[in-house]
Hints:
This protein is α/β, with parallel strands linked by helices. It has 2 domains: about 5-70, GMP Synthetase, Chain A, domain 3 (2-Layer Sandwich), CATH 3.30.300.130; about 95-344, Rossmann fold. It contains 12 helices and 16 strands. The strands form 4 sheets. Strands 6, 7, 10, 11, 12, 13, 14, 15 and 16 form a 9-stranded mixed beta sheet that branches. A 3-stranded mixed beta sheet has the order 3-4-5, covered by helices on one side. Strands 1-2 form a two-stranded antiparallel ribbon. A hairpin with a 2-residue loop joins β1 (about 15) and β2 (about 20). The structure holds adenosine-5'-diphosphate (ADP).
Amino acid sequence: xxxxxxxxxxxxxxxxxxRLSELVKDxxxxxxxLEILYKLPKKGMEEYxxxxxxxxxxxVPDVEDVRVRFVEEVPAQPVMGAPAFTRRRVAGIKHLIAxxxxxxxxxxxxxxxxxALALSKLGYRVGLLDxxxxxxxxxxxxxxxxxxxxxxxxNRIIPLERHGISLLSIGFLLPSEDTPxxxxxxxxxxxxxxxxxxxxWGELDYLVLDLPPGTGDVQLTLAQNVHMSGAVVVTTPQDxxxxxxxxxxxxxxxxxxxxxxxxxxxxxxxxPDSGKKYYIFGKGRVAEFATAYxxxxxxxxxxxxxxxxxxxxxxxxxxxxxxxxTARAFISIAKLISDLTERR
Length: 344
Ligand code: ADP
């Protein structure tokens, strides 16, 4: 065990809009005792920070004792009542809904695409923005792979249009699908900001934002800088997915973005021959998690071969089989989301 492992564990915890690791002023490992000196973001947060630290360090072996001290940071120019950051609204967008997940492969992009289509079926004007910079799959899912976007006379990107949805993906800006996205830091942030703010979206009721998986800097920066109506998190019922989705929920809560609810994907397998439901990854576990975190389950999507087949063909299940049980599940989730956001 090294200080590096500890810092990595602290990096995953977000408190008061920063990562715990960013608050560390000094850190020492003496035998199995870890000593941490934090700068205190706000008075009264001491106990909370100690708890979150102990929680994070449960995953780091060999630390037996943790001693936490604080030093108060006096802001240079305290401004009474000023928000921690200002969030910009994307012009023309009534509701921006972020779709996040704790880890990759749980079906976040599949859910984003079908959710966008379901909202459109309800009569809303909808856009879909693929910000999954590390694995943009929306072009394949929506059947626009290989297409390129153009700009208007004001140099604003014109989204593509497919299945009645305005679409934009980082994938459209890459030279070829094999290009690894190795952009980091400012370049990545610039590309993403351009995606949101320099786009001629027209007037949309909903923009569905497919975030990268996890709680990295892209998600955090977007959440801090862009006005969002809310976030939904996608998980499967497996332990690994559930463990990580907690971090995603905690991130949204910390940056004060309302978590509208959880979407349980691959909830069960519906046997096409017998019509019987098989709970392959366990039953009731997402509900347990949602109850423990005070979250709403927006809906459960079955593990349905039709979902992956239609996605691979660029014609997602809500567009290709709108009357199937799976499509209906997406439409009912879209209704709940519209109820929750219109009410706000
Ligand atoms: P993520 O965006 O979380 O990485 P994807 O949406 O790319 O995940 O989905 C991962 C794989 O799982 C894809 O091949 C997709 O077609 C498949 N998949 C997602 N949801 C389902 C589902 N409900 N039933 C069957 N296959 C699914």
